[in-house]
Specification:
By secondary structure, this protein is mainly alpha-helical. The protein has a single domain (4-209), classed as dinb family like domain (Four Helix Bundle (Hemerythrin (Met), subunit A), Up-down Bundle). The chain has helices at residues 4-22, 42-60, 79-104, 121-143, 151-161, 189-196; strands at residues 109-112, 117-120, 147-148, 208-209. Helix 1 (4-22) runs antiparallel to helix 3 (79-104) and helix 5 runs parallel beside helix 6 (189-196).
């Protein structure tokens, strides 16, 4: 099992990668581009990502049960700046959590009301890692650019993705993810993640996926 501090470091890379990709949004019109998330513009997707950062930060600090931290708020005229603030917030909270764990040797649970339960910190960070690997691809697809992750980041996210139930009763309308789609032949690990979570990937080199003009809209 990946050490907690290593997992947090992998999550940090995934989050910073998603932020780097998002920096390609330079024009006002870019924020209105459609994304692989059904009915969501890039602005709407980033609003969701920003709220998730704040929610997970609160959970890392023991306040995740308070749903006010998870509320999606208008990002105003400078959504990139607001998102950058949320990134700094969650990365700091996760770093504090690791420090606490290393000092006390106790892995506290994160309350994640949107998922419905309390989870060991290691599991919760894995959820966050997977979420932002996939959302980095969503952002890249919307902006027509490519995204690349280190192999260890993709491997860690794939391990989490494979544990997401594929039960139809837990996928589709109202659920966090769309039903899985067939994994492309010779799929990269990232493409396998995307297919398992209901997205139709465009296969690139190992560990990468590029944008496509034809992708299935899915829940995010």
């Amino acid at each position: 099992m990946t050490d907690l501090s290593d997992l947090v470091a992998l999550d940090r890379t995934a989050v910073r990668t998603s932020l780097d990709v998002l920096s390609a949004a330079r024009d006002t019109s870019d924020w209105e581009r459609p994304t692989p998330c059904a009915g969501w513009t890039l602005r709407r997707l980033v609003t969701h990502m920003t709220a998730q950062h704040h929610g997970f930060a609160a959970a890392a600090r023991g306040a995740g049960e308070d749903r006010t931290y998870w509320i999606e708020q208008d990002l105003g005229r400078d959504p990139l700046r607001r998102h950058e603030e949320a990134v700094r917030h969650v990365l700091a909270a996760f770093a504090e959590y690791v420090d606490e764990y290393e000092q006390r040797g106790v892995e506290r649970h994160f309350a994640l009301p949107e998922i419905g339960g309390s989870f060991p910190g290691r599991v919760a960070v894995g959820f966050h890692l997977l979420d932002h690997v996939v959302h980095a691809w969503d952002v890249a697809t919307a902006l027509g650019v490519r995204v690349t992750f280190p192999d260890d980041v993709v491997a860690a996210a794939l391990a989490v993705a494979r544990r997401v139930p594929a039960d139809p009763a837990r996928r589709g309308p109202g659920a966090a993810f769309a039903p899985p789609v067939p994994t492309p032949k010779n799929a990269s690990p990232l493409d396998e993640i995307l297919a398992h979570l209901g997205r139709t990937p465009t296969t690139g080199t190992a560990g990468t996926s590029g944008a496509s003009d034809a992708y299935d809209l899915s829940r995010c």
